């Protein structure tokens, strides 16, 4: 029997992305943006999803982003959102690449971003699920973090959160609704929440940005040892 045809990678990514766009549009109309999470995927995957029409990519790892960036098509540069746990000593190297810092969760990170990227766009990560192993500040600390950002001239565009690890629906809905309420109370336009497994619930709770990787690119390759 002839070998089964294998769809070219860029074509597969395009089909997956277009399918996701239709799915998200049905759920949230034009109010929800898709951030293609390209962590551990090569620059070719970034270029493919941008060619498919995606203008926002999300990266979790500083070194991974910096290593692939020289191969990203500068003529079709996506807007880069840093969504991983952010170490202050990585801000300097990232500030020429990152457009929006989504995982801002403590004063020291705010100080370093303000120093290295004055006026930068940031989103505050809230640990709305209350899980000790997750990034994000406590809900009770959001106001002081927000005010510190404004005092240093940063532009706070919204809030970001990650749902509970166990995916329990009631707890996830509670975390998402809490985050959306906080954003609405402060007049913030963006609410980044929801990934491949819980994007429907996130959109129902008011998400304006979903961060999706596997539904676009497939199984994630392992992180190489550095």
TrEMBL record:
The record's section on CDD domains has: PLPDE_III_YBL036c_like
Mind listing the UniProt keywords for this protein, alphabetically? Pyridoxal phosphate
Give coiled-coil spans as residue ranges. Answer: none
The stretch of residues making up the signal peptide is none
A molecular function GO annotation: pyridoxal phosphate binding
- UniProt key word rRNA-binding: no
According to the entry, every stretch annotated as the Alanine racemase N-terminal domain falls at 11-221
**Which InterPro entries does the entry link to?**
Ala_racemase_N, PLP-binding_barrel, PyrdxlP_homeostasis
Q: Which PANTHER family match?
A: PROLINE SYNTHETASE CO-TRANSCRIBED BACTERIAL HOMOLOG PROTEIN, PYRIDOXAL PHOSPHATE HOMEOSTASIS PROTEIN
Name listed for the protein in its UniProt record: Unannotated protein
Q: Give the taxonomic lineage as stored in the record.
A: unclassified sequences, metagenomes, ecological metagenomes
């Amino acid at each position: 029997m002839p070998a089964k045809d294998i769809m070219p990678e860029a074509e597969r990514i395009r089909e997956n992305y277009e399918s996701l766009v239709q799915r998200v549009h049905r759920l949230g109309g034009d109010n929800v943006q898709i951030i293609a999470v390209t962590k551990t995927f090569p620059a070719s995957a970034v270029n493919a999803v941008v060619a498919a029409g995606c203008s926002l990519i999300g990266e979790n790892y500083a070194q991974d982003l910096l290593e692939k960036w020289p191969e990203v098509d500068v003529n079709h540069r996506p807007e880069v959102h840093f969504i991983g746990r952010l170490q202050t000593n990585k801000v300097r190297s990232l500030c020429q690449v990152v457009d929006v810092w989504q995982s801002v969760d403590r004063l020291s990170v705010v100080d370093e971003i303000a120093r290295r990227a004055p006026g930068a766009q940031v989103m505050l990560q809230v640990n709305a699920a209350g899980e000790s192993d997750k990034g994000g500040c406590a809900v009770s600390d959001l106001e002081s973090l927000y005010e510190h950002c404004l005092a240093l001239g940063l532009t706070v565009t919204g809030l970001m959160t990650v749902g509970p690890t166990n995916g329990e629906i009631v707890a996830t809905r509670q975390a998402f609704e809490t985050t959306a309420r906080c954003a609405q109370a402060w007049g913030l336009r963006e609410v980044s929440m929801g990934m491949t497994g819980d994007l429907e619930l996130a959109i129902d709770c008011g998400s304006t940005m979903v961060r999706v990787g596997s539904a676009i690119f497939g199984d994630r390759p392992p992180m190489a040892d550095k």
